[in-house]
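I keep forgetting this: the sequence line spells out the residues, with the fold written below as integer tokens. I include a record here:
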Amino acid sequence: MESSKESHSSHAHAEGEHHTLPFNVYLSVFATLIFLTIITVWVAQFNFGAFNGLVAMGIATLKAALVGMYFMHLKYDNKLYSVVLVGSVGFLILFWFFTYFDFITRISESSTL
């Protein structure tokens, strides 16, 4: 009876308890971040027109999500922290799009003068 309780408690972590990941998980995430950095440099050589910023921000968002989930342990922490982070990033992207579209229209207006 005691051993089943111990095995269950080893898988379920109490809120606020420190979660330790195996070294190979950190190594895998690090290798993925290096790979995405190489992809970022490679993609920067191409001209996507108005979508240059969108492609760069997409790759950067993926890298930031990996850092947040594994190195900051948001994957194993209270889910409210993840909701706050995703909501904040969502509003940042929303405001970035409004600014980006305003910037595009101002360039086209000034080029017609």
In short: The helical segments are 2-11, 23-43, 52-71, 79-111. The chain has a mean pLDDT of 80. Residues 79-111 form the longest helix (33 residues).
